Amino acid sequence: MKCERERLLEEINILDFTLVELVLFLDTHPTSQEAMHYFDYYNRMKQEKMKEYGEIYGPLSLDQARGGTNEFLWTIQPWPWEGGEE
Questions:
Q1: Residue 64 and residue 51: Cα distance in Å, rounded?
Q2: DSSP per residue over 13-50, as a string?
Q3: Hey, is 85 helix, strand or coil?
Q4: CA distance linking residue 86 with residue 52, whole number of Å
Q5: Sequence spans of domains, the chain
Q6: pTM to 2 decimals?
Q7: What is the pLDDT of residues 29-62, one digit of tens each?
Q8: Residue 46 to residues 11, 15, 29, 78, 80: CA-CA distances in angstroms?
Q9: Cα dihedral angle (53, 56, 59, 63), rounded to 10 degrees?
Q10: 32 Cβ partners below 8 Å, 6+ apart?
């Protein structure tokens, strides 16, 4: 059974893969309103999941490294591959 941390990381990876595929499609179909709609939708979902993960386990990207605190959170939490406390 997957822990919550692994589940969130998997969801973020799936959303990231989806976004990469949409970008490849948009490279060849730059005026597709439907593809742009899907891109915006999945990008919002990914940002929400990354924020959720960051609030619980620490930031996954440098744009979340401050986290609204006086500490640089990027280096003081376990890295995703190091596991961590549940």
A1: 8
A2: HHHHHHHHHHHHHHHH-TT-HHHHHHHHHHHHHHHHHH
A3: coil
A4: 15
A5: 4-78
A6: 0.75
A7: 999 999 999 999 999 999 999 999 988 888 887 7
A8: 8, 6, 22, 21, 17
A9: 80
A10: 25, 26
